[in-house]
Amino acid sequence: MKLRSIKALLATVVSAGLLSAAGVSQAQEIQLTGPLKGAPAVRHERYYRAGRFDIAPAASFTLLDEYRRTILFGARLEYNITDWFALGVWGAYGGVSLTTDLTDRIDAVAPRDTLTATNVNHTGTDPNNLRKAPFADQTAKIQYVAAPQVTFTPFRGKLAIFNKIFVDTDLYVAGGVGVVGLQQRGTCSPTGTPCASPSSFAVSSTTQIAPTGALGLTFYPGGFWSLGVELRALPFWWNRSGFDTRGGGPNGQFPDGAVTDADSTFKFNTLVTVAIGFYIPTKPTISE
Amino acid sequence: MKQARRWLVLTAALVLLPQGAYAQKKKPPKGGEAPAGAPAANAPVNMDDEAKPANQPTPPAGGESTTPAGGESGGITGPSAGGMDICQVTPDAPSCQAQKEVNLVAEAKKAVRAEVYAVQQQYVIKAQRFEVMPYFEWTFNDQFVSHNAPGLALNYYITQVLAVGVNANWYDGLNADSEFNFQNRRAARIAVPLNIYQLSADLNFTYVPMYGKFAGFGDFIFHYDAYIEGGVGIIRTKPLPIIDPDNRSFPDWNTLVNFDVGIGLRIFINRWLGVVVGLRDLIYSEKLEALTIAPGNAARDKGTWYDNGTHITNDVQIQLGLTFFFPTTFDYKLPK
């Protein structure tokens, strides 16, 4: 057994020696100095944004609305310092404001009596003889938004549709600070304008400062124009119904007979925006 | 037996000997310099040297002798190796005449109109593969009660763009009545009937009309596709007692038929794993709690608990999940 092991070991050593005598197997390293040396990964890359102004008329639609849906018409104006970084502003005016089904139902069904006198719009001063007034008139609406913002475009690529249509596409994120003009029910309290008074349901203009962020896709059917769709967040506190819901009782979680800032609740407002972008200069630069 | 082992070892050694034939750096000639016109073994290969086109004869150093210095090479070799070009031996050969007529420098400067596809080869072949997609979905359109749920989708791709599959969501335990709903009830004395879900399950067809790729930060590339889906299935719901919680309890789930449509975006991390975000709408006819309460003992009658009509309901969901493709590997039918 021992002898056989020695023989096997010797045979293995001999085989290994023969193999090692074959020398080092190697492939030649090819260092190209021809047209590919130092060449960029993408040739003739179209820089749709770098050094161009972007003017994009847009329509924005609010989502998950409780009492009012708003369609805002506006535009995005940006200067693209590089192909991936831009400074600009998005602004829009709330051109259309539509009531939701809930608003219509409250208007139609909600009782106008002493229990709802501070919360639901009515006419008349006799608490036992209140008459119906449009509930929609007391609900808040977005009047305008102006948001200076920076835009990063980290992802760019292309999209094939039905294997026939190929569109250059990029994905961007934007962030900024929004100035939001609102119309919402004004302040009322037992010491000032009583909240049961019909005049207290009138809305007044106010302004909110809110962070805003967006995630969007831009499609480039041509070098001069683009199509865009984005999802935007615009979170802030506001009193959308005009109700007195907080400020009294334990931890201020109960109605206190006054409509104040305490009745504003946080809403992560979201909007979907569609836009058509136009660029100046009209022709994008093209890499070598 | 011992003889056999010896022969076996010897045979193995002999079999391995021919591995001396291999790709190897070309060693410079012993005792001599490489020809001036020949690149050194480690020298870069110039693919478009205008001064010395690759198929032009290269005169050796000294200009007279066609034998490289060192004199080891005796055969007819390519000019880049410093040897003799075939056209020097037979300049009248048709192939050599043709080469002379072509101005390679001018040809190289011509614009190339190669047929290049926007996306050369799809990164992931889905045809005849299974997709397993665990996800979580959030209610997107109901401000009164949320129906969040984990879910699982199983699809089989019949072709690269068409799949058939099933998916199911489990909602029970995750339905949540919003505070907004409570505040609204308290302030306006109006209640909105609410329903909660137990589960939904659908048979779906998926179509993938779009695919593409993104370059991230100019550094890496990821591929994605977008799909639309549609199908039919069931959803089990029941009202949450809001109008008359003292008498109504709704212990039983109602099984309803739903139709679903959706769109989604699938971003591939590799050829079998991806991240999915989707938007789906379950459309069904809902049975709601009655807004009126029957007088007297009739309020305890289950027959009076439901609203007489049915209400078309859209449950729009945002989905975020992972997608796994099996088998994890595949072969392309056509070359790149």
Helix and strand layout, with pairings?
The complex is a heterodimer of chains A (288) and B (336).
Chain A (H helix, E strand, L loop, with lengths): L1 H20 L24 E2 L5 E11 L4 E13 L4 E15 L1 H9 L12 E2 L7 E2 L8 E21 L3 E21 L17 E18 L4 E14 L8 E2 L5 E2 L9 E16 L4 E2 L2
Antiparallel strand pairs in A: 1-14, 2-3, 2-13, 3-4, 4-7, 5-6, 7-8, 8-9, 9-10, 10-13, 11-12
Chain B lengths: L1 H15 L69 H4 L4 H8 L2 H6 L20 E10 L5 E3 L1 E9 L4 E9 L4 E3 L1 H10 L5 E23 L3 E21 L13 E15 L4 E14 L24 E16 L10
Antiparallel strand pairs in B: 1-3, 1-10, 2-5, 3-4, 4-6, 6-7, 7-8, 8-9, 9-10
What does this structure look like?
The complex is a heterodimer of chains A (about 290) and B (about 325). With about 290 residues, chain A is mainly beta. Chain A is about 10% helix and about 50% strand. Chain A has helices at about 1-20, 100-110; strands spanning about 45, 55-65, 70-80, 85-100, 120-125, 130, 140-160, 165-185, 205-220, 225-240, 245-250, 255, 265-280, 285. In chain A, strand 11 and strand 12 (about 255) form a beta hairpin. Chain B is mainly beta. Chain B has a domain at about 130-325: Porin (Beta Barrel). Chain B has five helices and ten strands; from the N terminus they run H-H-H-H-E-E-E-E-E-H-E-E-E-E-E. Chain B has helices at about 1-15, 85-90, 95-100, 105-110, 180-190; strands at about 130-140, 145, 150-155, 160-170, 175, 195-215, 220-240, 255-270, 275-285, 310-325. In chain B, the strands form two sheets. In chain B, strands 1-3-4-6-7-8-9-10 form an eight-stranded antiparallel barrel. The longest helix of chain B is centred in the first third of the chain and has 15 residues, at about 1-15. The two termini of chain B are about 55 Å apart. Mean pLDDT of chain B is about 75; it is low at about 15-80. The interface between A and B is large, with 60 and 49 residues.
